[in-house]
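Subject line: Sequence and fold of a protein, written as structure tokens
Enclosed: The protein record, placed directly beneath this head.
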Amino acid sequence: MFKTVLTVAAAAALVVTGALPATAAPATRPGAPTSVRVVGTADQATVRWSLPASGAKVVRWTVSVTPVEEHPDQGVDRLGATARWDRFGALQAGTTYTFAVRAVGAKHPGPAVKVRYRATAAQSEPQSLYALDEAGAVVRFPTDGSDAGRTVAPHGTGFTANDRGDVFEPSADLKSIFMYPAGGRARQVIATGLHLTADLRSDVAGNLYWEDSVSGAVMELPAAGGMPVTVLPDAGLVWAVGRDGTVSAWVGDTSRAAVTSRTPTGETTTRSLDHGATGTFGYVREMLADGAGGLYVNWLSPGAAGAYSWQALPAGATTWTAAQPKLAFQYGATNSDGFRLAQSAEWCPTPSEYRPHGCDVDRSITTTVVRAADGTTTTVPVTGVTAGTRGPETGAADEAGDVYLDVDSGPTPGLWRLPADGGAAQQLVCAQFSRLLVI
């Protein structure tokens, strides 16, 4: 490196003679993006890049894919100036795709940089149970209860997963989404610049959802690629995602309520609800969804009994109906087919728990109530596990109908599996787990 030193006298001579130093014309187009790379997993690919080293100011980006196949907008995504990544899904196995990233200035686009990825077949994993342990790690269990599980993500608060075995979690600063790919490959950042809450959710297609911490909207990161989109403008009091991708939000109070739902095809409807025979909506605490547009709402009664009740709202219905045959200490879960509720033999109102001898009733789980999406109800006898505390307790259910629940106290604490056909419950592990998910 060297410097050219211009004396005052020499500078004055240049001015007098009119021989001014040459000035480069301002750039009219940005330079090429730098550090362009693609990271792929099976039929999905994420393209990343950095700002150009020179050139005009970047006002937006374009990212194109060839072959176009069924990608929207002829395979071209148009992104804002702050974007540094783009995601593409539904890629055909055996096809090599070319992704071209180009910075666009106020007047002209800059040169494109291309990267390539060869897609492989997406492999659906057998269903698994995922749960968050007391240390905040995500543990994966086989649904048949054949082993005690293994840790798949060390810091999984707010996690979700897809049916390929990939696990997703929000970053600690709630601005990015991390993916732990199935098979133990290194963690990837799949989205940045977000306003997350620590509560990611997913459907069976692999789309990711969350409540925007600034706007309150329910957002979706499509598995097929592209940028996050707004699904519902308001997450309401509680919201739920069905396995089919129907997203629903509950708004209202004890006297009036409404549910807004958005189907996978983009149809959005709002239903004003009738509380039916209950005479009230109670204080809504949880809402679960099946795979057919049905919702199951847990609410706390306004009276002194402290009862947590489950109500069913079938797809398209405006009046909810009881999803339980009796009050009980209970655990609710859904799968694609409907709702399952593990119930205790007896129940007592809250005030009884504070009497000298407490609530001396039989809390043994004796039945699993199975409610199909069409409203048909059956009961299956079970044995071997006793309920813990009262509350809006939720578990998880697999497609075979097995129910998984975590008992927080009492004589049988730990993680349990209730077989779909009934009979003896199976304890998977004695430790405590939360945020149960089967997918």
